[in-house]
Specification:
By secondary structure, the chain is mainly β. It has six helices and 85 strands. Strands 30, 31, 32, 54, 55, 56, 57 and 61 form an eight-stranded mixed β-sheet that branches. The radius of gyration is 34 Å and the shape is globular. The two termini are 19 Å apart.
Length: 1152
C-alpha cells in the first residue's frame, strides 16, 4: 500500500487576480498555486506580504472577481480542473476565505473539451460571466438581481456558438448597459488565420435572456491580418476629460476610447465598435505576446514569450485614438499573468520561472525588481545526489530528512531555466545587522566581569580585532579597548576561563588576562616564528608554531610550557582541536601525510591515527577538526569530524575508553574545506555549524546525525551568542556584514536556485566524476527567426560551475534536440570500467521531406570525460527514429526510439572510437516514452497504452538475442514517467504516472489462473495527484524495522512539486487507511470539495470513487492543525488515542 507526501509544494503561478476582499482596505492580490489560494497585501513600501493560505481539494483552473450589486467587497470565483466551481468571500471572524456558494457539473460528459485553455471572463461591472469549457459551447451566468440573493450566482443558459477554436475572449466596455462579448478565434486548428467577432450577450432589454449567438446576432465580424494575434485588450471609456462624442456622419467618424485592442505578433489593431473605425500600427520588432494588465486607460503592460516587458501606449487626442506604440521597458520572467496593484507595483506570475514584483516608472520607462517569489516549475528532470556514503558505489541512499540526500532539478524554461538544489534544511531568522564589515575571519563571545550571560562580541578581521559591548536592552556599542586585550592584531582565539579570567591568543603571543583588573597576569611568546593553529580548554592550550612545532601550555596561575614536539621536516600541522568534554586529549591534523591523530595532551604522543586520503594520488589534507558529543551519550559516543581541503567531511566514531576510531564515513559539504564551529546545546551535547559554499548545521535527531542546509548561503563564520537581550542567538559574519540570527527549530525544505539561462531538459549524476551531466537547449531570436542550439554540459556537483567547454549537438542544417542523458559505467578499450555519458537526440524536421537518403531522425552519442574534466565524443550512431529514452542493462545500452525499443552492445576500440551493435528489438503498442531496467527485465512506458514488461534473452546456442513481452497493463493510460519499486509484501511493483496527474502502482499478476491472466499487470494502488508528473527517481533507503513508511522514490511535477513516495509497513496499513477516511470527513477546505472526489483516479475512460490503497500525507499532516476536540473525534473508534496519532503524524512529517 502506497503513501505520498509533499517535500516541496508546487509554486507555479498560472492565475492571479487583484480583488477587493477586505472592506475599507486597498485591493489585495490572490494567487493560485495548484491546490492553494494565497492572499497577499501590498505594503506602503511596495512589497507584497503573504497573509493567508487556503487549501482547495482540486487544481485551480480559473479565477475571477465578481461584484454583487450594492456590495462593498468582491466575491472570488474559483473553478477547478474537474468542473467544480465555488465563490468565496473573506470571513474576518475566521481569518480566512469562507465558501459562499458551490456548483458542480453532475451531468455525463458528452461534449469535447475546449482545444484552448479553459477560460472565464467577467464583464466590467462584475455581474455577468461567461465560462468556456467545451468546444463550441459557452456557459452564461450572472449575479442575482433579487435583493436577498444578490450574493448568489444565477445560471442563465448554455449556448452553442459557431466559433470552435477560441484564442481569446473578452467583454467590451459599453455605455448602454447591455453587455457585449468579443471572441478572437481561428476557423480551423490547422489553418493559421485569425478572426474577430462580437455579440451582444443578451437579446432583451432586461438582460434576462441569453442571445442565441447565431450569424444574425453578430455585431461585428472581421478578419485580422496578423494570424498570430492571440490577445484582446478591452479599452474603457476613460475619465471625464476623455468624454466621447459620436459623429452622425460615418465618413468623418474617428476611432475613440471604448473599443478593443487586438495584439498580434507583428501588428496592433485598435477597433472602435461604436464608430466602426480601426487604427492599426505595425510593430518594429515581432514577438509572441502572452499576458497583459492595465496601468490606465491609455497605458498597458504586456509580457511576451521571451521574457520582455513592453509598455503599450495609446496616443490620444482627447478621446480620439490617433495611434499606438510599444516599447520595451525591462526583462521579466516569462509571464502567465500580469497584475498591476497600483502605486507603481506590478506582479508577474510565472509558471516558467520565478514570480516577481516590480516597481514601475512609466515616465522613465524603467522597472526595478523589488521581490522574488521562487518557483521550481516546471521540473523537466530530477536526480538524487547522496552527499553521504562517499566511500564506495552501490550503497543505499541516506534518507531525505538526514540532509544528506539532495534533490537536483532541471527547472524553468528558456532564459528562466535553472538548476535547483532541494534539500532538508533549517532557517536562520535574522534579528538585526550589527555592522557592515569585510575581511572578518573569526567571531568569539565573552562574559564580562560579573556577567551571568555573554555580553561581549569579539570580531577578528585580517589585521585587527574589534570589541562590541551588549547591554541588557539591545543597546550595543563598539569600544576602542577592553581589559588589556591586544586589538592591533588578528585574534586567533579568545575565551572565558574559570576564576574570572580570559585567554587571548594572537599570532605573536598567548595572554592570560584578569577580567576584573584588566591586567595580563601571564604572557607566553614563541622563541621564533608565529602561532598558526590554536585550541584551548579550561586547563590546557595546544598550539603550533609555524606549523612545525606542537606546544602544550598548562593553564594554572600562569601559563606554563608543559611539552613540545618538533616535527621538523617530517610533517606539518594543519589543524588542532581540544575537545571540551575530554580535557586530556587533543586532535591534530597533518599536511604532508593527510592524516589525523588523537594525542595525549601531556606527552603529545599519538594514541590513535588515521590516514584520510581516499586514493594514493589524492593530495587532500585535513583543514579543520572537531570532536564532540552530537548524539545523546546513552545512544552513542563522541564523533570526530575532519574537514578536508576538497570539501569532504570525514567522520569517525570515537571510543570513550581508549579513543580508538571506527565507523569511517564521508559526506561532501562543498568544493573547499568547511570551517567547523561548535554550538553548545543542553545536556552536554553540541551542534556543529559548517561554513562553506553550502553552509550546513550538523546535529543529532532521533538517534542519527543530520546534515541540514542553512538558509544563510554567504556565512563565513559563526559563534554562539546567548545574551540577555538576544537569548539563544548566534552571530553570523558574511563577506559584507556581521548580523545576529536565530536558528529555526523546525526543519524545512531549503531550495537554492542556480540560474543557467537555458532549458535544462535532462540531468545525469556521476558520483565518480563529482559532476552532473546536463542536456540543455538554448533559444534566441536572430534576424526575427528563432534559433535553437542543444548541448551537453558538465557542471560541478556542489557549485554547478561549468567544467570545460560545452559539447554542442550540431547537425546543421537540421536542428538537433537533446532528448535523453544518462551516465553509465562501461568497459573502456583496456577492459577497465570507465565513466561514460550517453546522450539521445532527435531531429526537428521543420517540414523537411524525409527521403531514403535522409531518413535519420536522431542519434545516440557516447561521451567520455578527459583529464581536464571536459566532455569529448567517443562514438555516435545515426537512428531512423528519435531517441526518447535511454537505459543501461549491464554492459548493454537500451534505447527507446519512435515505435521501437532496441538493445545495443557497446564495444570500445580506443578512447575515441567504439561500436554500437544492434542485438534485439521490441515494438510497443504506440510510442515508448520511458524505460526502466531491472535485472534482465525492461519496463517500457507507452505513450497511450500504459506499460509492458519485456525480458531480454542473450544470444545462445546459435540463437540471436531477443526481447520477449512477458506482461502488460491492458488499459489506456497516457504515460509520462515510470519507476521500479523494490519488492515488499505485495511483491515487485512499478510506479507509473500519466498526463492527467494520476499515479498508479502496478505489479505482475503472478497468482493468475491462466497464462493470459499472468500476463496481465494489475493495479494495487491509485490516486490522482492533481499535477502531471515529469520524472520519478528511485531511491533505496535502509529503513528501520519499526518504520511506518519506507521511502521508495522522489516524484517531480510540472507545477514544481517534489513528492516523497513510499510503501506503508503492513502493520500500519489498516490504521492509516481508516485514519485518512475519518480525517477527510473532518478537515475543511475552501470550496467544500470532497477529498475522495479530489484524489480519485480519472482519465477519459473511467473515474473512481476515491483513492485506492493510497494514503495522502498532506491530508494526514492537517491533523495537527485541528483543535483537541476535533482530534479526539477523529480518533474515536480508531484504536490509538489522539496523542498517539499526533506522535505518528509528527514522525511521518519528519521524513521530509
Amino acid at each position: 500500500m502506497a503513501y505520498i507526501a509533499p517535500i516541496h509544494r508546487p509554486n507555479s503561478v498560472r492565475h492571479a487576480i487583484r480583488i477587493g476582499l477586505f472592506p475599507n482596505e486597498p485591493e489585495c492580490l490572490v494567487v493560485a498555486k495548484t491546490n492553494r489560494l494565497e492572499v497577499w497585501k501590498r505594503e506602503d513600501t511596495g512589497a507584497l506580504v503573504h497573509t493567508s493560505t487556503q487549501y482547495v481539494n482540486g487544481t485551480v483552473a480559473m479565477l475571477q472577481r465578481l461584484r454583487p450589486r450594492d456590495a462593498d467587497t468582491d466575491l472570488l470565483f474559483v473553478g477547478t480542473d474537474r468542473f467544480q466551481y465555488f465563490t468565496v468571500r473573506w470571513d474576518s471572524a475566521k481569518g480566512g476565505l469562507d465558501t459562499f456558494e458551490m456548483f458542480y457539473d453532475m451531468d455525463e460528459k458528452h461534449m469535447r473539451d475546449s482545444q484552448s485553455q479553459d477560460k472565464c471572463i467577467v464583464d466590467p461591472t462584475g455581474r455577468f460571466m461567461v465560462v468556456l469549457l467545451w468546444e463550441g459551447v459557452i456557459n452564461v451566468l450572472r449575479m442575482h438581481t433579487v435583493k436577498g440573493k444578490r450574493q448568489n450566482l444565477s445560471w442563465m443558459d448554455q449556448v452553442r456558438i459557431s466559433e470552435l477554436f477560441i484564442k481569446c475572449a473578452s467583454f467590451l466596455h459599453v455605455e448602454t448597459g447591455y453587455p457585449k462579448v468579443a471572441f478572437l478565434y481561428q476557423t480551423r486548428t490547422e489553418n493559421p488565420d485569425c478572426h474577430l467577432v462580437s455579440y451582444r450577450l443578451t437579446n432583451d432589454d432586461k438582460n434576462t435572456e441569453v442571445s442565441r449567438f447565431e450569424t444574425r446576432d453578430q455585431i461585428d465580424r472581421m478578419e485580422i491580418e496578423d494570424p498570430g494575434s492571440a490577445l484582446l485588450i478591452p479599452v474603457s471609456k476613460g475619465e471625464e476629460h476623455h468624454k466621447r462624442y459620436l459623429s452622425r456622419n460615418a465618413a468623418s467618424a474617428r476611432a475613440q476610447l471604448g473599443g478593443v485592442i487586438v495584439l498580434g505578433e507583428t501588428r496592433i489593431l485598435y477597433y472602435d465598435d461604436a464608430a466602426k473605425k480601426k487604427v492599426e500600427t505595425a510593430l518594429q520588432e515581432a514577438s509572441i505576446f502572452v499576458a497583459w494588465t492595465e496601468y490606465d486607460v491609455s497605458h498597458y503592460f504586456v509580457g511576451d514569450d521571451y521574457g520582455n516587458l513592453w509598455l503599450l501606449e495609446m496616443l490620444l487626442d482627447g478621446a480620439v485614438v490617433t495611434g499606438m506604440k510599444m516599447r520595451k521597458i525591462g526583462v521579466i520572467s516569462r509571464p502567465n499573468c500580469l497584475v498591476y496593484m497600483g502605486h507603481g507595483t506590478l506582479f508577474v506570475g510565472s509558471h516558467y520561472g520565478d514570480s516577481q514584483v516590480f516597481h514601475v516608472d512609466i515616465d522613465r520607462g524603467e522597472i526595478e525588481l523589488t521581490q522574488t517569489l521562487h518557483n521550481i516549475a516546471p521540473i523537466l528532470d530530477l536526480t538524487i545526489m547522496d552527499m553521504g556514503n562517499r566511500e564506495g558505489e552501490g550503497q543505499t541512499s541516506n534518507e531525505y530528512s538526514s540532509g544528506q540526500a539532495r534533490i537536483v532539478t532541471g527547472s524553468g524554461v528558456h532564459k528562466d531555466g535553472s538548476l535547483r538544489s532541494v534539500r532538508s534544511g533549517v532557517g536562520l531568522d535574522d534579528e538585526g545587522i550589527l555592522d557592515s564589515m569585510d575581511n572578518v575571519r573569526s567571531l568569539f563571545s565573552l562574559r564580562s566581569h560579573g556577567a551571568t550571560k555573554v555580553d561581549v562580541l569579539v570580531v577578528s578581521s585580517l589585521f585587527e580585532t574589534k570589541i562590541f559591548l551588549f547591554g541588557s536592552t539591545e543597546h550595543i556599542k563598539e569600544v576602542d579597548n577592553f581589559k588589556g586585550m591586544i586589538l592591533t592584531e588578528t585574534t586567533l582565539l579568545v575565551q572565558n576561563l574559570p576564576n574570572d579570567r580570559i585567554l587571548q591568543v594572537t599570532p605573536s603571543c598567548v595572554l592570560l588576562i584578569d577580567l576584573e583588573s584588566g591586567v595580563a597576569v601571564s604572557t607566553w611568546r614563541p622563541a621564533e616564528g608565529e602561532i598558526t593553529n590554536i585550541s584551548a580548554n579550561d586547563e590546557w592550550v595546544l598550539l603550533s608554531v609555524d606549523g612545525r612545532v606542537l606546544v602544550c601550555l598548562q593553564i594554572g596561575q600562569d601559563l606554563i610550557k608543559y611539552e613540545q614536539n618538533d616535527l621538523g621536516d617530517s610533517d606539518q600541522i594543519a589543524c588542532i582541536h581540544l575537545p571540551p568534554q575530554y580535557p586530556n586529549i587533543g586532535v591534530v591534523g597533518f599536511w604532508k601525510s593527510g592524516s589525523v591523530s588523537i594525542v595525549d595532551i601531556k606527552t603529545l604522543q599519538s594514541l590513535h591515527g588515521e590516514n584520510l586520503r581516499r586514493k594514493e594520488d589524492n593530495a587532500s589534507v585535513p583543514r579543520d577538526v572537531v570532536l564532540a558529543q552530537i548524539l545523546p551519550a546513552d545512544i552513542a559516543g563522541p564523533t570526530l569530524f575532519v574537514s578536508m581541503e576538497d570539501g569532504f567531511v570525514v567522520t569517525f566514531n570515537v571510543s570513550k575508553e581508549d579513543f580508538s576510531l571506527s565507523g569511517r564515513k564521508m559526506v561532501v559539504l562543498g568544493t573547499r574545506h568547511a570551517r567547523l564551529q561548535l554550538l553548545p546545546q543542553p545536556g552536554g551535547m553540541y551542534n556543529i555549524f559548517s561554513t562553506s559554499e553550502i553552509p550546513s548545521l550538523i546535529y543529532g535527531s532521533e538517534g542519527r546525525i543530520v546534515y541540514s542546509a542553512v538558509t544563510s548561503d554567504d556565512a563565513i563564520c559563526v559563534c554562539p551568542f546567548d545574551a540577555e537581550a538576544f537569548p539563544d542567538c548566534i552571530v553570523v559574519a558574511t563577506e559584507k556584514e556581521v548580523k545576529l540570527s536565530r536558528i529555526d527549530n523546525e526543519r524545512r525544505t531549503h531550495v537554492k536556485p542556480l540560474p543557467m539561462g537555458e532549458t535544462i531538459r535532462r540531468i545525469a549524476y556521476s558520483k565518480s566524476e563529482r559532476a552532473f551531466g546536463l542536456g540543455c537547449f538554448h533559444r534566441e531570436v536572430k534576424d526575427n527567426e528563432e534559433v535553437i542550439v542543444s548541448s551537453f554540459k558538465l557542471v560541478d556537483e556542489v557549485i554547478f560551475k561549468q567544467l570545460g567547454k560545452a559539447f554542442i549537438l550540431d547537425s546543421s542544417p537540421r536542428v538537433e534536440m537533446v532528448e535523453a542523458v544518462i551516465r553509465a559505467d562501461l568497459e573502456d578499450s583496456y577492459g577497465n570500467r570507465a565513466e561514460r555519458f550517453i546522450v539521445g537526440t532527435s531531429y526537428l524536421d521543420d517540414g523537411h521531406i524525409i527521403t531514403a537518403h535522409n531518413d535519420k531522425r536522431g542519434r545516440i552519442l557516447v561521451l567520455g570525460i578527459d583529464s581536464e574534466r571536459e566532455p569529448y565524443l567517443i562514438t555516435y550512431r545515426q537512428l531512423k527514429g528519435a531517441c526518447r529514452a535511454l537505459a543501461v542493462m549491464g554492459d548493454k545500452i537500451v534505447a527507446a526510439l519512435a515505435k521501437t525499443v532496441i538493445v545495443y552492445s557497446y564495444t570500445e576500440a580506443s578512447t575515441v572510437s567504439a561500436e554500437l551493435k544492434r542485438l534485439a528489438s521490441y515494438r510497443p503498442a504506440t510510442y515508448p516514452i520511458d524505460l526502466v531496467v531491472q535485472g534482465n527485465t525492461i519496463a517500457v512506458a507507452d505513450l497511450m497504452k500504459s506499460m509492458s514488461l519485456v525480458e531480454f534473452t542473450p544470444a545462445a546456442d546459435g540463437q540471436p538475442a531477443k526481447l520477449t513481452e512477458v506482461s502488460r497493463h491492458y488499459q489506456s493510460f497516457w504515460a509520462t514517467a515510470l519507476c521500479h519499486i523494490d519488492g515488499d509484501a505485495d511483491g515487485e511493483a512499478w510506479l507509473e504516472s500519466d498526463t492527467q496527474g494520476n499515479l498508479v502502482v502496478l505489479r505482475k499478476n503472478t497468482a493468475g489462473v491462466t497464462t493470459e491472466d499472468r500476463r496481465r499487470m494489475e493495479v494495487t494502488s491509485e490516486i490522482n495527484l492533481g499535477e502531471m508528473v515529469n520524472k520519478i527517481r528511485k531511491v533505496t533507503v535502509d529503513a528501520s524495522d519499526s518504520a511506518i513508511v519506507v521511502p521508495k522514490a522522489f516524484v517531480g511535477t510540472v507545477e514544481g512539486g517534489v513528492y516523497l513516495f513510499g510503501i506503508i509497513s503492513p502493520s500500519y496499513r489498516d490504521l492509516l487507511i481508516r485514519f485518512q477516511g475519518k480525517l477527510a470527513d473532518v478537515v475543511e477546505t475552501t470550496g467544500n470539495i470532497e477529498f475522495a472526489k479530489y484524489r480519485s483516479f480519472r482519465n477519459e475512460e473511467r473515474e473512481s470513487d476515491g483513492p485506492t490503497r493510497f494514503v495522502d500525507g498532506e491530508l494526514l499532516e492537517r491533523f495537527l492543525d485541528l483543535d483537541e476536540a476535533q482530534q479526539e473525534s477523529v480518533c474515536d473508534g480508531l484504536g490509538p488515542n489522539a496523542e498517539a496519532m499526533r506522535n505518528l503524524v509528527e514522525e511521518l512529517k519528519r521524513m521530509h
